[in-house]
Amino acid sequence: MIPLPLARIAEITSGALAGRADPRAVVRGPVVIDSRDVVPGSLFVAIKGDHVDGHDFAGRAVAAGAVAVLASRPVDVPAVVVGDAVAALTRLATAVCAALPSATVIGVTGSAGKTTTKDLLARLTARLGPTVAPAGSFNNEIGHPLTVLRAAEDTRFLVLELSARKAGHIAHLTRIAPPAIGVVLNVGTAHLGVFGGREAIAGAKGELVEALEADGVAVLNADDPMVAAMAGRTAARVTWYGRAANATVRAEHVTLDGRGRASFTLRTPSGAAPIRLRLYGEHAVGNALAAAAAAYELGLPVTTIAEELSEAEPRSRWRMEVTDRPDGVTVINDAYNANPDSMRAAFGALGALARGRRRFAVVAALRELGEESAALNEGVGRLAAGEGLEALFVVGPDAGPILAGAGAGRTAGEGGGAPPGGGGLRVVHAADVAEAVDGLSALLAPGDVVLVKGPRAAGLERVAEALLGGDRR
Questions:
Q1: In what order do the strands lie in the sheet with 330-333?
Q2: Which residues in 220-241 are b (16+ Cβ under 10 Å) and which e?
Q3: Is the pTM of this model over 0.85?
Q4: What strand order describes the sheet that includes 68-71?
Q5: How many CB atoms are located within 10 Å of the residue 411 CB?
């Protein structure tokens, strides 16, 4: 963070110094919302949540070295007291971003693939200069400003992930850190019930390109018609990526190896280079192309882009983590989150990785799908039934539509037909994670492959961790 005295922080946030706070004391960062993350020089932001009130940890934060607390009520330690801590956090991040002397802000949004693309792009920009990017998915009204506040005077690139749960959210985030480059990946069905339709989702995602100035660049997916239509919503120059022949940055000759990892030729206007991804699933090609297109706009040579993308490993947890047990069982932990589109991508990756091997899947009902919830969850069941599974475990409540879809798909004999074992699909409703682990463990044999995929609230990452003997990280 840019060093700031408490007096300046109070001025920016329209706050008042309290608790004998020294106006000359300097905050050097980081700015944190968890007292366990405090180090000497930090600013602790006390946020009152539904279950935990950060003000209760103010004393602990200062004892750990925080210079002060940004609080919405007086506390018994040095503090800047404001009316709304989250709004004050926003104002502070906005001011810090405006003061960065040479930083280029790059925003990434889309219904799926934001975090992976952000991770890839941050790796690429790091070849050009000091880069700040969020850890994991810090992409909302709290995580976004916290990431911006990690920037220092030498930061050259801010690679930010922007999410939306309703119209106006992305526009709000772009006002904190105005982007010079905006990357839009896709328009899918995530949060369909919140928005009410894909057109509304496209409207929200397109707020990113609307925020670009005329000298900015919109990096758009030529393969997604709803993203392509956003070209008419921006004054910025547009560069296209994808597999389409008219894409400026495109993938040619895509193939998958025996582990479901893609190789392709990266084609750009200035040349081509081969890429062999270490990321799993064919859907990773689109994420890699989006990152490549943004990096190309920044002037990174195509050979360097290809080299970095070929060396990139999965960075954020529970997203297509593929681990082999000593007995040869392979566990695919993709349990960070799920929607109908990412579910299809995950099953595609399972099919590519598990050729000739028995395959299993553990899923949970998808959420926030509105009136289409039952139909879309039933579609997940049909999808699973067509993937040649030995067994499908559906965990937790609201499992009825997935179970019905799996049953109908099994009866109709859709898709991939009988699994290698020849016994037909077994469909199991598990009440909770423990029951799923017990049932699945009883069926697994050396060499089997297990996909674990579901919404974040389902906690299915615990299934994968249990199958691997605990969290190895």
A1: 321-324, 330-333, 449-453, 359-364, 391-395, 426-430
A2: bbbbbebbbebbebbebebbbb
A3: yes
A4: 16-18, 79-81, 68-71, 43-45, 31-32
A5: 10
- 12 CB contacts (<8 Å, ≥6 apart)? 4, 91, 92, 95
165-191 per-position pLDDT tens digit: 889 999 999 999 999 999 999 998 766
* Residue 368: per-residue pLDDT: 81
Phi (first) and psi of residue 373, to 5 degrees: -55, -50
CA distance 249 to 434: 46
| Sheet strands side by side (includes 131-132) | 131-132, 157-161, 104-109, 181-184, 217-221, 237-242, 249-256, 261-268, 271-280
**Chain position carrying tokens 């699933």:** 281
Please confirm whether the linkage preceding 301 is cis (ω < 30° from 0). no
The single-letter code of the amino acid at 85 is A
Pairing type for strands 31-32 and 237-242 reads unpaired
Cα separation of 268 and 197, whole Å?
34
**Tens digits of per-residue pLDDT, 230-287?**
999 999 999 999 999 999 999 999 999 988 899 999 999 999 999 999 999 999 999 9
Nearest to 416 by CA among 396, 386, 391, 389: 386
CA distance linking residue 60 with residue 278, whole number of Å: 42
Task: Output the six-digit token pair for 231.
Answer: 């070209």
Which residue ranges form the domains of the chain, and what is each CATH number?
4-86 (3.40.1390.10), 100-311 (3.40.1190.10), 321-467 (3.90.190.20)
Token readout for 317 is 């947890």
Tens digit of pLDDT for each residue in 15-69? 999 999 999 999 998 999 999 999 999 999 999 988 899 999 999 999 999 999 9
Rounded to an integer, what distance in angstroms lies between the CA atom of residue 366 and that of residue 381? 11
Amino acid symbol at 473: R
119 contacts: CB under 8 Å, gap ≥ 6: 133, 312, 314, 315, 316
